[in-house]
Amino acid sequence: MTIDNLFIGVITFRRPKGLRRALEGIAAQTFKTAPPPVTVIVVDNDRDGPMVGLIEEMRPSFPFPIIYAVHPEPGIPFARNRVIAETKGADGVVLYIDDDEYPEPDWADQLLERYRATGAEAILGPVISEFETTPPDWVSQGGFFAKRHFTDGAEVPFANTANILIDLKVFNTFGLQFDPRLRYTGGEDTLLGMQIHKKGGRMIWASKARVYEIVPSSRVSSKWLISRKFREGNTYVLSEKLAGSSSKRQASLFLSGLARVGGGVVLSLLALPFGKVRRVRAFLRAARGLGMLYAFAGRRYNEYKTIHGS
Fold this sequence. Notes:
This protein is of the alpha/beta class. Helix content is about 40%, strand content about 15%. It has ten helices and ten strands. It has helices spanning about 15-25, 50-60, 75-85, 105-120, 135-140, 170, 190-200, 220-240, 245-270, 275-295, and strands at about 5-10, 40-45, 65-70, 95, 100-105, 120-125, 125-130, 165, 205, 210-215. It has a seven-stranded mixed sheet with strand order 3-2-1-4-8-6-9, sandwiched between helices. It has a three-stranded mixed sheet with strand order 5-10-7. Strand 1, helix 1 (about 15-25) and strand 2 (about 40-45) form a beta-alpha-beta unit. It is globular, with a radius of gyration of 20 Å.
């Protein structure tokens, strides 16, 4: 399968160390065969454009052309859509990686290999947590920062722009975009995945296309984990509603939220004698359910008004 263009998109907001690390990882990409023309697109979601100095510092020795665009309208969906706008309707694929991540040297090649083999509308790879400081024992024992993994080549039920290849026809032909209504909540990638499925598209797992996410110390707490799980439940239901899920599906999700809250409360009481890992797991179950019910009440949790890491 011929690929006309390979765009690598990074959106950033006040994380100069993270952006430098991400770009260094992109610069170190290796390919078994000559890749399609590669362009890196950095969208700065800070109206003052503070990353311009870093970009100009790296540009002379960078192995690929870099487009640096400032998008002053705040919100993750706006920045992700600006990446697509900078492709100017070209055919090919776009890879997204976050500014608190860095890829393995064959990351892009592994995504391309799976795309060539399947022609799927999206290819996703694993995100592996790497802690900024040594986490407490209960965090390691509970695996609370471990991400979901799938069998290599399996179809994936959700999208995650932390590590993804998307065929540009999703935007140019299907007419999809990252939904601006999820400006600060997150979940715009979850919704996009649902919409890809509704259009008959496929999303496939590439287990060797690995990136590493730096987990700052500000996130290593039960409080942050609980708030994240609450947000995940909230945005999942919001995405289902925005994707036009049926009344039956929404009723099922509502009952699931209730069950999670009730089960989480019971489990948290039962876990009292058994240590922090079990207690936190119970709290997370209840928090996801509460987030789901919060969405059904017409409320949103705007997690991304706060930035973690540098």
